[in-house]
Write a structure and sequence with these properties.
Layout (H helix, E strand, L loop, with lengths): L2 H12 L1 H4 L8 E4 L8 E7 L2 H9 L4 E6 L11 H12 L3 E4 L2 H5 L5 H8 L3 E9 L2 E13 L1 H7 L9 E4 L5 E6 L8 H7 L3 E4 L6 H8 L2 E4 L2 H4 L2 H14 L2 E4 L7
Parallel strand pairs: 2-3, 2-11, 3-4, 8-9, 9-10
Antiparallel strand pairs: 1-4, 5-6, 6-8, 7-10
């Protein structure tokens, strides 16, 4: 498969152009490879040297990531930025990044992935970011507690950024926004949810959650954004026949 065809496929599947006005990430091809042919694609959350090295060692032609290396402005090729790009080019490893479109996608995204793992009912778009919803919300058919919800997310309490048990012990509803979304807790409060699930936990939300009586699970930015990357690996393998592999590099943050 040619890289340009891969880009056309992803652009259509993930509605990349729709997010261009609000997404600082340079979604799509960030670094090309010679001849453009790809047979094996590695998937990771972050475009960092560790994921580059592992992708190259696995014989990948391209690395697909959620967090790329270009964020709204050109960076001079010095220091770590230079070393990363140099490694990609010397190893003929293409880099492809998809940020907000992969958070918001209603079938393959990070947030819908968590909603499905929780078996939420009545799932609806939730969480406005610059005029577009990027998260999802829903209800538990039978109320659950924080422990059972963590179990559905396949997480232990000590793996989370934070757990704030300030809401009802029997949880009937949840709003989910992955990544650095902790300050969006106010949207969950306004919606009357029992639980807000985010990636990161900002210090300022502690008393906000306590005073408004809402539970918070901050799974960690990384953990909240593996869902879409893994979903894309499975979907691309099924749709294109390309060999895919997921590289797990948890940060605990």
């Amino acid at each position: 498969m040619q890289l340009k065809d891969f880009h056309r496929y992803c652009s259509d599947l993930l509605n990349i152009a729709e997010f261009a006005p609000i997404d600082y990430s340079k979604n799509g091809i960030q670094v090309e490879r010679q001849n453009g042919e790809i047979k094996k694609v590695a998937f990771a959350v972050d475009a960092v040297m560790q994921s580059f090295v592992q992708a190259a060692e696995l014989g990948a032609d391209m690395l697909f990531v959620h967090h790329g290396i270009f964020w709204g402005r050109e960076s001079v090729l010095t220091g770590t930025h230079y070393q990363r790009i140099r490694f990609l080019m010397e190893n003929n490893l293409a880099l492809y990044a998809v940020h907000l479109p992969l958070d918001a996608h209603p079938e393959l995204g990070n947030n819908i992935g968590m909603a499905r793992a929780l078996d939420l009912t009545g799932v609806e778009p939730f969480g406005l970011y610059k005029g577009k919803t990027i998260g999802f919300s829903g209800r538990f058919e039978i109320p659950e507690n924080l422990s059972s919800i963590l179990g559905r997310l396949k997480m232990h309490p000590e793996e989370c950024n934070a757990i704030l048990p300030f809401g009802p012990p029997e949880i009937s509803s949840a709003g989910i926004i992955s990544g650095g979304s902790s300050r969006d807790i106010n949207q969950a409060i306004d919606a009357g949810f029992d639980l807000f699930i985010s990636g990161e936990a900002d210090h300022t939300i502690y008393h906000t959650a306590q005073e408004h009586g809402i539970n918070v699970i901050a799974t960690g930015h990384y953990a909240s954004e593996t869902w879409g990357v893994e979903s894309m690996a499975r979907r691309i393998a099924a749709d294109t026949g390309l060999e895919t592999v997921f590289i797990d590099i948890p940060t605990g943050l």
